[in-house]
What does this fold into?
Amino acid sequence: MPSLKVADLGIIYSRTMIPTTGSPFPSTAYSLGPDVLGVMDDALVLLRFNDDRSYIDFWRTRLVPNTATRNSTAIPSVPKGVYSEYIYKTLEATVDGIIDFTRDLIRIRSMRNVGYDREWHELKIGENFEVTLAK
It folds into this structure.
């Protein structure tokens, strides 16, 4: 079974997704342009083929800085209880905020440089599967 090492992905990522002079937001299927919200359903899938440290180094040196330079927001999903404590602690220290979800609740656990409500809020799923905060 072929595997994807983050060292190889880092090279591809640098060539196609990091802004360069003359083309601040290259057009690729995977790039986030300005003012884009990217949601990843399982941001740690690469850990299947890589060790914790290599993946975290990729995250800190490629993903987080690239999102900031593009004025975009990325919301990666990191399922709790699946990965090592090192992964969770390091990612939590790297990102600007942490949002917790349960089946029908949401809360902001932490957020840098802004005020926020730490209470749990109920989510409502509409007929068209649109999710909103319950009133």
Notes: The chain has two domains: 1-95, 97-135. The chain is about 30% helix and 20% strand. The mean pLDDT is 78. Residues 1-95 form one domain.
